[in-house]
Amino acid sequence: MSIIHEKSPKHCAEKQRTKILNKSKKKLLVCASTFFLCILCLILLLCFILHPSNPHFSLTQVDINHVDITSPSPFLNSSINLTLLSTNPNKGIGIYYDGFLLHASYNSHAMTPDTSVPPFFQDHQQPNLLNASLLGNHHHVDLSLVAEKLPLGFTATGSLRWKVGNWISRRYGFSVDCETVLPLGRIDSILLTSKQPTVCSTSF
Question: Which parts of the sequence belong to the Late embryogenesis abundant protein LEA-2 subgroup domain (predicted)?
Fold first, then answer.
């Protein structure tokens, strides 16, 4: 004797409604996945076509207003003003600089603490002159300032974002290294100026 399962019309209707909801969820999921995939492909396509080039930096002027070595301990007091030229070489891409830190060094020894450069936006193919005053007070540095030349290094570290239309990328860390050599004799309290442009290296 076989068992007959009878289902009421209400039960059939609920089962049919569940099937419709499941189909709707699947369609919604497929549509959402397709949408986000298209957005991702568009971003990748823009990055591939535009291929942003790294910004260019050059050191255009360095003014050393004062360098003093305390005796007998090798502590250094210094006052340096510099002008840094930043250029965006891209035709259709803007750059948001979220600020960066800049310091001076001699033979890999820090002469000044980090100085903050305010954030700014740089439109495509736009140059910007950045001025910074670096003050170092009582910094312990192993210097031999009796040479005829003073090799200086300037390092900037920070983050930037690319802007393409209304789309803005995530933050990317970058580092800029500049080097210049100033002629000098014995240093006590001096004023040295270098207006020889120096191309800096930029790394991400």
Answer: 84-178
Is the model more confident about 4 or about 14?
A: 14
- In Å, what is the CA distance from 186 to each residue of 4, 105, 148, 152? 110, 19, 8, 16
Q: Which has the minimum average pLDDT: 8-12, 61-65, 125-129, 152-156?
A: 8-12
Q: Which of 19-23, 49-53, 54-58, 132-136 has the highest mean pLDDT?
A: 54-58
Rounded to 5°, the CA angle 88-93-99 comes to 60
Q: What is the CA radius of gyration of the chain?
A: 30
pLDDT number for residue 188? 43
Cβ atoms of residues 99 and 70 within 8 Å: no
User: Over 64-83, what HEC string results?
Assistant: EEEEEEECCCCEEEEEEEEE
The alpha-helical segments, DSSP class H, found in the chain are 9-50
Predicted confidence band at 190 (pLDDT cuts at 50, 70, 90)? very low
Q: Phi/psi of residue 172, each to 5°? A: -120, 130
Residue bearing tokens 């790394």: 203
Long-range contact set of residues 118-123: C-beta below 8 Å, sequence gap at least 24: 121/94, 121/95, 121/96, 121/97, 121/163, 122/55, 122/86, 122/88, 122/94, 122/95, 122/96, 122/97, 123/88, 123/94
